[in-house]
Every structure is written in structure tokens, then in C-alpha cells.
């Protein structure tokens, strides 16, 4: 067993907390192993003023870190990278693989109101009220239920977004965030409410951590096999295959919900594709008994994608013009 493991992740407070969590999992399972966390900046971290969909895909969060898995300098080379799984591309570059997925935290999205707000839900907001979210998936789904509200991009880490929301001069009446991030940073007391899939399906992989390794690194794979979660892996592999089969990325409105019953071995997967303006949508589900996690989870995602494609999901995705998203907000 490798006695020292170098863990890479992004520089944000949330990313560091996530990397430290993986460090704790490894050291608890392998007490003779010492882990060191390295927090590094990525292109996505540098671009805080523009919506994510306007300048690239998920590689914004991963490329600089991936380069360090293969760097020749021993003092800089990483052994594993910890990502928010929702930020990982469904197809990784040659030489890299998803080594494991840790136990998921609440994958839902949540509503956060300003400290002095009298509102407890979107239902009571006045027409034209501004909802802050940088996610096309979130705004597209909410437009189906709340066409009278306005949706504007808000960037920055969680604390920055909450400060913008609480600023008396803000135009935002509320913001939408991932529940898992709020809980990991101890900010759960600021959650006004959470959404279930009747209002908003969550992002693929949301709430889970994906750990990236060098392809074929058997030593790191054996470590990750000991700390990762079977139920979460089952759900997330199906979700990721659904997105891959639909040919969607982090900047298109694909939402999911999933559940795995360890007693019956039954996986339930639900998905939705929504047009940017919220006017068109395709929604469906697929259930499958899981006997082989890699084979059957992937097959469940593929079958659901085929159902949704037959109902017009791919047509909705192909018609999306990201240059026109701002005008639809």
C-alpha cells in the first residue's frame, strides 16, 4: 500500500472541504497512509463574471488538475483528484478514469431567501422578481412553474453568492443553490426550502464526489474501492450514462432523480430535458434490477435515454442556442 497519497482539488472553500473529506476517508481506512491535500486554481475559478455556459464546458474545472496527474516532477505530481461529480465530464480524456464515487449528500437544489425576506417559497414572489442562478438546468425547469419570474446569472462561491443576496442594494429576491454544498459548509440554516423532482430535477451527479485517477493505476483503484459507496455509484453511473447518451453537458437543461434499494436491488432513474424557455419538456423513468453495477447501471441510463429521445429530447437539446440564453432569461 502506498504510504503517501497526494490529493488535488480546486481552491474554493467547498472544494477544500471535499478534498479533506476524502483524505479523512482514506486515512481512517488505511491508518498507515498519510494524505496531503493540494488546492489549485482552475480556469473555471478565474472566470467569475460570466455565466458558465458562455465560455466552455466541464473541462474548465478539471484540465489543470488532470495535467498534474502525469507531471514528471515528483514534488508536484498528484495521485488522485477530488471533483464535485456534477462537474466531471461524462467522457474523460485518454489516460484518465473515474476511480470511485463517495457516499452522496442530499442531491437536491435549494431555495435561499435574504435574511430579512418575508417569503418562504417562490409561490409568493411578485411578478418580475429576480431569481439568481447560473444554471440553465435550474432556470429552465423553474420557468415551467414560474413563468412570471426573472432569472439572472449569479457567480462566485457560496459565501459570495449569499453576501450578494443579503446586500440591501441587491436585485436578487432569492437564489438557487445545491443543498449538498450548503450542508458541507455548515450553511444549512440558510436553506429556506428544498425542491423535489415535481418542481426541479437535480443535476447529474449532484451531491456526490468523483475521484479521478490515472488510467490503470491499480494501487489507487484498490484504495478507492475501500472508501466509495455502492448505492451512490449505482445511481450516478446511471445518471451519467443518461447524460452521455443524450449528448448533453453541464450547460444544457438535463435533470435527473434516482434511488437504489439495496434490499430489492432495484434502481429507479428519472430524467427530464427542458427547453431554455421552459416551454417544451420530455420526462420519463426507467427501473432496473442491478446484478452487475457497471453493466446494469449503464444499461438503465441508456434505456431511459432511448425512451426520452423517442419522445423528442434530443431535438430539444439540438435546438438550444447558448448565445440566445441570456435573452430568454
UniProtKB/TrEMBL annotation:
Keyword Transferase in annotation: yes
Q: Which UniProt keywords apply?
A: Heme biosynthesis, Porphyrin biosynthesis, Transferase
The record's annotation in Pfam families points to:
Porphobil_deam, Porphobil_deamC
Known cofactor(s): dipyrromethane
Sequence ranges assigned to domain Porphobilinogen deaminase C-terminal in this UniProt record: 234-309
Sequence similarity: Belongs to the HMBS family.
Protein name, as recorded? Porphobilinogen deaminase
